[in-house]
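Appendix C: a fully annotated inverse folding record. The material below is reproduced so that readers can follow the format used throughout the book. The structure is listed first as tokens, followed by the designed sequence.
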């Protein structure tokens, strides 16, 4: 068994392990050979065996992988998965050690002062908007964008599909043309689901297609929806290129897409920067307000996750915080909790509890500043080629090295 094969095998077995314990596999997508598919591999390995396999894989990687970026990428991913195993096997790990271990970024609370500055900005934007207080104004603003009943039905059965085809075209015309390259795209199917901890999810199915699910337990807002569609489509695009790279190189590790690694920081970062990549017009007055509100929601979401997981605060205290400082409705605050809470409704460990950091940090500390630099230096074609055609750039561990040329 070569190093890449060992890597895939251990990733998939860890996927089976996390699925058994939490109901969620860390293998987010797999499009490799059948004999290494998670379904054909053991779901019964003990943590001792998994840790042993991880260590053997580390050694094999060191011996066999020559490309330094590829090696660093794979080592980083495996370190993260080692942390997943440690965490779920009950090792005494603090939340901050967990976030650092998984994503190779530091867990940092946002100061209330910084949040206040963003609130001031939003207050100015909504100055002439009707309402007694900022809370009232934001509730009204949210209500106005809400989609329910027939409009929602039409959206889910018809409109989403049309919009996603349009976004696919935008990627081809504005980015792939610039790169002078193309990738097969068999499109995205949309599906409405309930009873899940997230708002939207891109399931990459392989063979260049995806299933995007939207959680209809949450209230639908046409303003947010636009961002969600771009976000989820970018995940699809990034996996298209990954699958193409796998088929070209036959580097097995590209066929497995793990959650909870340095990859996720970049993946969520690029997804949250997709609208910038495509220069989607942002001058609509509702989008301007939303762009001021989003960082407040993201920062308070991260702070609430720290309250719950690090500071031992109660769910009710976190909900209050999300309402008071994040300007959410109680309903929205309660929905957010299911993503960041240490345990699920059924009392299992919530695998997603540390994940919230990837979005904001991925965009702010990695992808967006690099994108701005690429614009300023007039090197966008090379920038996009690095992101999409070099899959080993896509980790918080390798990002800076991959962009050293810039
Ligand atoms: Zn995402």
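Designed amino acids, in order:
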């Amino acid at each position: 068994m070569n190093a890449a094969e060992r890597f895939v095998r251990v990733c998939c077995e860890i996927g089976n392990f996390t699925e058994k314990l939490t109901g969620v596999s860390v293998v987010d997508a797999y499009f490799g050979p059948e004999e290494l598919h998670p379904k054909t591999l053991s779901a019964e390995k003990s943590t001792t065996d998994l840790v042993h396999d991880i260590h053997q894989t580390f050694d094999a990687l060191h011996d066999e992988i020559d490309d330094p970026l590829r090696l660093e990428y794979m080592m980083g991913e495996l370190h993260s998965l080692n942390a997943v195993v440690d965490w779920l096997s009950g090792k005494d790990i603090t939340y901050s050690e967990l976030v650092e271990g998984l994503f190779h970024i530091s867990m940092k609370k946002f100061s209330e002062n910084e949040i206040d500055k963003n609130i001031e900005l939003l207050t100015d934007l909504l100055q002439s908007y009707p309402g007694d207080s900022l809370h009232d104004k934001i509730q009204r603003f949210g209500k106005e964008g809400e989609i329910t009943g027939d409009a929602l039905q039409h959206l889910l059965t018809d409109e989403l599909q049309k919009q996603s085809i349009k976004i696919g075209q935008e990627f081809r015309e504005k980015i792939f043309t610039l790169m002078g390259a193309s990738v097969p795209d068999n499109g995205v199917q949309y599906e409405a689901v309930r009873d899940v901890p997230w708002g939207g999810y891109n399931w990459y199915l392989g063979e260049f297609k995806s299933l995007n699910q939207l959680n209809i337990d949450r209230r639908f807002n046409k303003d947010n929806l636009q961002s969600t569609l771009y976000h989820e489509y970018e995940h699809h695009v990034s996996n298209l290129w990954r699958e193409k790279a796998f088929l070209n190189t036959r580097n097995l590790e590209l066929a497995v897409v793990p959650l909870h690694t340095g990859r996720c920081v970049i993946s969520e970062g690029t997804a949250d920067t997709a609208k910038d990549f495509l220069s989607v017009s942002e001058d609509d007055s509702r989008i301007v307000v939303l762009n001021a509100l989003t960082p407040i929601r993201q920062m308070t979401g991260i702070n609430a996750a720290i309250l719950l997981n690090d500071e031992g605060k109660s769910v009710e205290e976190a909900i209050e915080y999300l309402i008071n400082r994040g300007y959410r409705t109680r309903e929205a605050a309660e929905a957010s909790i299911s993503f960041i809470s240490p345990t699920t409704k059924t009392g299992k460990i919530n695998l997603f509890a540390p994940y919230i950091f990837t979005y904001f940090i991925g965009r702010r500390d990695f992808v967006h500043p690099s994108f701005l630099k690429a614009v300023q230096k007039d090197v966008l074609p090379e920038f996009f080629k690095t992101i999409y055609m070099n899959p080993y750039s896509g980790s918080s561990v390798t990002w800076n090295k991959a962009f050293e040329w810039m």
